[in-house]
Amino acid sequence: MTIKEIEHITGLPRSNIRFYEKEKLISPVRNKNNGYREYSQQDIESIKKIAYLRTLGISIEDIRKLSNKEADLYDVVKTQRQILEQQLSELESAKLMCERMLSSNVKIDYENLNIEMYVTDVREFWNKNSNVFKLDSVSFFYMWGGGVTWGILTIICLLVAVLSIGYLPDQIPVQWSGGVVSSFVNKKLIFAFPLSCVVARFLLRPFIWRWLKMHIMESDSVTDYITNYVCFLALSVEIFIILYVNEIVKHVTVLLFIDTFVLIGLLIIAMYRIYLKKTACTIDRIRSCHTK
After folding, report:
1. How far is Cα 78 from Cα 124, in angstroms, rounded to an integer?
2. Overall pTM > 0.85
3. DSSP letter (8 states) at residue 266
4. Which residues, at least 6 apart from 135, have a Cβ–Cβ distance to it below 8 Å?
């Protein structure tokens, strides 16, 4: 069967089917005559299983373990149920707190909000909601990934190009080898740097988001972070070229290394804290189940 037929049978778009294949969750054979993929009935059943488990919130990694017989379906589903129970419990608790505030005879507003009216033990309440504060700890992560930050980086990149074009030589360096310039281009290509910011945001971002959506929780934030990092890198290289042709600096490696080290370091820290938030509920729930 062709992928078009598989789309019709399963009701899933081919982008998902291709993704499952890329993740090696299905392995359609190739037709030797035309090179096209041919899907079997077993592939159809696998696709339906994968899609169903994804609707339960089970990760691609866990599904891969199930497919490779490295995990037991009962245990995976049980763990996922515990995660969902914890999430539901937290949502229900928050809902009750909102209902208590709304049912109060006193008109509520931010200026006169007295949390002791709704919380008996404040410290205990903070502890119960510690996962929320873990997410707050990555505020820089979200600020850096915001659309406003992207806009600022893109505008700066464009302004630098506009203001410097008249002072640049006809040919500017774009590639180095062993500390020596190995490639030159016309100076008008300085505008390729702000253009790369636009390309990163509107063309590259959807592909990054789609991949991350299947793997981690904070796909929007991480995607925006990576997009803005590309813009920051473009701005850094643009500024370096201007400084280089004016004989102010000579080595691009140091600049790029510092940019990469700082920004990727912040990304790793932020993703790790998000991971802690994501898994804390599971660990706490499993421990509580073992103690009952």
Report:
1. 28
2. no
3. H
4. 273, 274, 277
